[in-house]
């Protein structure tokens, strides 16, 4: 069985190689105006959270059906405050 979930981190870019027996692909994450605050080693996290947060706000059934088709669900959660 082939499976891959490899993250490569370089300055200003992260790549995520994905592979199974039936599908393969690569996600690229680069610095943009929306994720510039992220450290080089966490661009992918910041970008995925931002993307799915915005994607969930789309008010069309086609987007929601597409996520359900692939079994992808996303929910944001509030960060716990460290101000005690």
General description of the model:
This protein is α+β, with helices and mostly antiparallel strands and 84 residues long. It has one domain. Helix content is 29%, strand content 27%. It is built from two helices and three strands, in the order βββαα. The protein has helices at residues 43-57, 61-69; strands spanning 3-10, 13-20, 24-30. A three-stranded antiparallel β-sheet has the order 1-2-3. β1 and β2 form a beta hairpin. The longest helix is centred in the middle third of the chain and has 15 residues, at 43-57. The protein is flat and about 35 Å long. The model has no long low-confidence stretch (mean pLDDT 91).
Describe what is shown at a glance.
This protein is an alpha+beta fold and 84 residues long. It is 29% helix and 27% strand.
Helices, strands, pairings?
Layout (H helix, E strand, L loop, with lengths): L2 E8 L2 E8 L3 E7 L12 H15 L3 H9 L15
Antiparallel strand pairs: 1-2, 2-3
How many strand elements?
A: 3
Mean pLDDT: 91
- How are strands sequenced across the largest beta sheet? 1-2-3
Elements, N to C (H/E): EEEHH
Strand content: 25-35%
Rounded to the nearest angstrom, the distance between the terminal CA atoms is: 48 Å
Total count of helical runs of at least 4 residues: 2
Shape: flat
Helix/strand class: alpha+beta
What integer value in Å does the Rg equal?
15 Å
Number of domains: 1
Q: Roughly how much helix do the residues carry, as a percent range?
A: 25-40%
- Stretches where pLDDT is under 50 for at least 5 consecutive residues are none
């Amino acid at each position: 069985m082939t499976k891959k979930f490899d993250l490569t981190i370089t300055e200003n870019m992260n790549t995520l190689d994905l592979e199974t027996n039936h599908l393969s692909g690569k996600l690229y994450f680069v610095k943009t105006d929306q994720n510039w605050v992220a450290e080089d080693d966490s661009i992918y996290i910041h970008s995925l959270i931002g993307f799915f947060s915005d994607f969930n706000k789309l008010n069309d059934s086609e987007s929601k059906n597409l996520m359900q088709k692939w079994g992808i669900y996303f929910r944001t959660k509030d960060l716990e405050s460290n101000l005690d």
